[in-house]
Write a structure and sequence with these properties.
This protein is α/β, with parallel strands linked by helices. Helices cover about 40% and strands about 10% of the residues. The chain contains 9 helices and 7 strands; from the N terminus they run E-H-E-H-E-H-E-H-E-H-H-E-H-H-H-E. The protein has a 7-stranded parallel β-sheet, sandwiched between helices. Helix 2 links the parallel strand 2 and strand 3.
Length: about 290
Amino acid sequence: MTDSEQTLPPQHQERQPGHQSEMHPEPQSGERTYLAAGKLKGKVAVITGGDSGIGRAVAVAFAKEGADLLVCYYDEHEDAEETRRLIEQEGRRCELMAGDIGDESHCNEIIRKAIDTFGRLDILVNNAAEQHVSKKFEEIDTEQLERTFRTNFFGMFLLTRAALPHMKSGAAIVNTTSVTAYRGSPGLIDYSATKGAIVAFTRSLAKSLAERGIRVNGVAPGPIWTPLIPASFDEEAVKKFGADTPMKRPGQPEEVAPCYVFLASDDGSYMTGQVLHPNGGDIING
């Protein structure tokens, strides 16, 4: 690899989920750059995986736009507290809730807490995910397959099911899928399969809920600099992360967050069943 192909300092974290506070440089969440226009004033949003990465950037943008938030995460308490600080810095309320999104009872508790705390639910962002690199397909054991689907897809399904009785006409659901759902990834077969399922789920649910006035859309990020990257890949892979895109670099979470604002706000009022593609220039046609 030539020096011109290096996009990031080499680094690796030994456990998932990764921690944003240990990354160098830290991902950019938009707290200093995002310009708001009150697009979500008075709204309440639940965001999973909101402690760091894309989730944190979305939470910050939503707060700047006027929303109060319930931020869900697994066990990255330090990162989650920083997200809360950034939200409260914008004068908005933030509740944190730690736990396993793959557990049905936890999903139900998330929605109960949102309603008990804020009295309403306008936006659901299903963003939490995990991934595990496997060099050979045969290395993906059943435990890993089930775990990846439980976090990435079952959690989304269960949380959406719990949320819908509390969502009224005008509400919005935004699901995080991935560029891998469209182009595949030989080292992330189970992860890519969950992201393909999310695309089908988004399209089908959108048609199901259209008559109720609830919009359902997705965002399919390409290579974005989040804690999932150093927690998944070795130092050499991180070093050239995003170099294979037409833009020759990874994206920052703050470059993805505006997609979620658009789809959650009235700006996206004629959008449902669609997927936006902030991916550095890959032509997906999906």
